[in-house]
Specification:
3 helices; Beta Polymerase, domain 2; 19% helix; alpha/beta; 5-stranded mixed beta sheet; elongated; 9 strands
Length: 179
Amino acid sequence: MENSFIKDRLVHKFQENILGYEEHFGVLSIYANKEYNLKILQYLHDEEELAFRFMKDLTAVHYPDRVGEEITVTYLVYNMYKGVELRLNFSIPINNPSIFTATKLFETSNWLEREVYDFFGVNFIGHPNLIRIMNVDEMDYHPLRKEFPLEDQTRRDKDDEMFGRGGDFHFGNMNIKAN
């Protein structure tokens, strides 16, 4: 199955709700209206000629500079019969990061959606058990959003010199001065 066939079928079916597409390393990426995520996934799953019936992955990326579409939710679906992957991207605003759940269509999405919720704060509307899966319940933020530092700035038990942040470096018999 050619990527052009998949793209043409999606553009024909969903018209202006397909916002763009590109291909990297043989994998077609479709950018679409977030309100149609479940309809597009259902179509790809049910349409006999497409038969994308396995979800390989589901993740998100935070793009803080894209006003109104700061978070992109990405689905990687797979046609096992033809060995074809397809990447679907839906951008959502950070002030209301909501998109429909795919748990009734792909059982795999249950835990993957919980992970995206946990790390990015995406609300999957209709998810049967949208709770944290890896972080503690007391955590009041979503750590993979870029507005949060990668490490706890209040910790006093780390020696910055051990992590290459300041001080002199010693490699064997060489001493290197830090800037």
